[in-house]
């Protein structure tokens, strides 16, 4: 994929009024008997990247689509750049990348971008944006003939072409190859660098950890935790290693200081928690040696966002 370092990106956004980019308070959304969003409250600050995380069916898309003005809430309030989400003047100030393309199937790539650009006063150059997202050679390809990843990239381009103040990205990197994923991350980082507020949903914890200033974890339509990635993962460290599945962890636990914990998750991946220091490291390696076990990938690290996410939302499939 082609990459251009000096493309003009949205912004800089002139003077930031005091309201947050998005303010959601006590939001409720029901579909018949299903309460998809159940009193959700959070803020996305101006100039920050806010990542909304949650298991399948947690209510992320419902929430984002209400903020985008596409769905109506059944309760609570939502303000986008200080306004009700359905206000027409938001169209020129907000960029939207929906989960499913939203592009007419026969429309060609470049044609679509030019069309979207007409809604905005100072759009970016559509050719440069196509190049930036590796779509130049598909400029004349109808949307329906693009691969899933190419369709995603076109939707991303359409979301930013108007130099919006705020961009909503619903699972922007779902189904993208690593090159495209990195191009998307670079674009989001640059948007943020130029003062644009970004609200994104994602299932990739590494994406949230890498990009987000603020993470909102939702489950069953409610916020279960929020904060910066660092504040959510905390200062606590863990010792991790890989070895054959089924090691007798109770025995290892007996050798470790009181208050330590040991678990195997998933099979063959071991996590030791507690006062992680030289003593604990020595105990674990000595125990492995006595058991004739080679501990692969032995490392000490902080909890990941994925650990926190699974602790908060459980492991059962939704
Ligand atoms: N149009 C609809 N009609 C009926 N139920 C719906 C509709 N849209 C969503 N739901 C239900 O509302 C709940 C929340 O769905 P939503 O799409 O908001 O979740 P999500 O967190 O975005 O999920 P995913 O990660 O799978 O995209 C789910 O139980 C879903 O089945």
TrEMBL record:
<dbReference type="InterPro" id="IPR027417">
    <property type="entry name" value="P-loop_NTPase"/>
</dbReference>
<dbReference type="InterPro" id="IPR003593">
    <property type="entry name" value="AAA+_ATPase"/>
</dbReference>
<keyword id="KW-0046">Antibiotic resistance</keyword>
<dbReference type="GO" id="GO:0005524">
    <property type="term" value="F:ATP binding"/>
</dbReference>
<keyword id="KW-0547">Nucleotide-binding</keyword>
<keyword id="KW-0813">Transport</keyword>
<feature type="domain" description="ABC transporter">
    <location>
        <begin position="22"/>
        <end position="245"/>
    </location>
</feature>
<keyword id="KW-0067">ATP-binding</keyword>
<dbReference type="Pfam" id="PF00005">
    <property type="entry name" value="ABC_tran"/>
</dbReference>
<dbReference type="InterPro" id="IPR003439">
    <property type="entry name" value="ABC_transporter-like_ATP-bd"/>
</dbReference>
<protein>
    <submittedName>
        <fullName>ABC transporter ATP-binding protein</fullName>
    </submittedName>
</protein>
<dbReference type="InterPro" id="IPR050763">
    <property type="entry name" value="ABC_transporter_ATP-binding"/>
</dbReference>
<dbReference type="InterPro" id="IPR017871">
    <property type="entry name" value="ABC_transporter-like_CS"/>
</dbReference>
């Amino acid at each position: 994929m082609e990459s251009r370092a000096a493309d003009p990106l949205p912004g800089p956004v002139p003077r930031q009024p005091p309201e947050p980019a998005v303010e959601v308070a006590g939001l409720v959304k029901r579909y018949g008997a299903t309460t998809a969003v159940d009193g959700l409250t959070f803020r996305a600050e101006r100039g920050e990247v806010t990542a909304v995380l949650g298991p399948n069916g947690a209510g992320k898309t419902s929430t984002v689509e209400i903020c985008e003005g596409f769905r109506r809430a059944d309760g609570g309030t939502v303000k986008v750049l200080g306004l009700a989400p359905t206000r027409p003047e938001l169209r020129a100030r907000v960029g939207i990348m929906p989960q499913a393309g939203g592009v007419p199937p026969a429309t060609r790539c470049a044609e679509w971008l030019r069309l979207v650009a007409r809604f905005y006063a100072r759009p970016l150059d559509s050719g440069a944006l196509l190049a930036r997202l590796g779509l130049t050679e598909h400029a004349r390809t109808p949307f329906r003939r693009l691969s899933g990843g190419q369709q995603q990239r076109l939707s991303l381009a359409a979301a930013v072409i108007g130099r919006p103040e705020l961009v909503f990205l619903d699972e922007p990197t779902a189904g993208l190859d690593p090159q495209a994923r990195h191009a998307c991350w670079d674009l989001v980082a640059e948007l943020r660098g130029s003062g644009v507020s970004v609200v994104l949903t994602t299932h990739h914890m590494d994406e949230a950890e890498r990009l987000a200033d603020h993470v909102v974890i939702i489950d069953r339509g409610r916020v279960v935790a929020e904060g910066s990635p660092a504040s959510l993962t905390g200062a606590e460290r863990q010792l991790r290693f890989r070895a054959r599945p089924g090691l007798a962890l109770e025995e290892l636990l007996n050798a470790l200081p009181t208050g330590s914990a040991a678990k195997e998750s998933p099979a063959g991946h071991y996590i030791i928690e507690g006062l992680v220091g030289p003593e604990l490291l020595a105990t674990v390696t000595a125990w492995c040696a006595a058991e004739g076990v080679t501990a692969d990938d032995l490392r000490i690290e902080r909890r990941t966002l994925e650990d926190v996410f699974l602790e908060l939302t459980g492991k059962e499939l939704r």
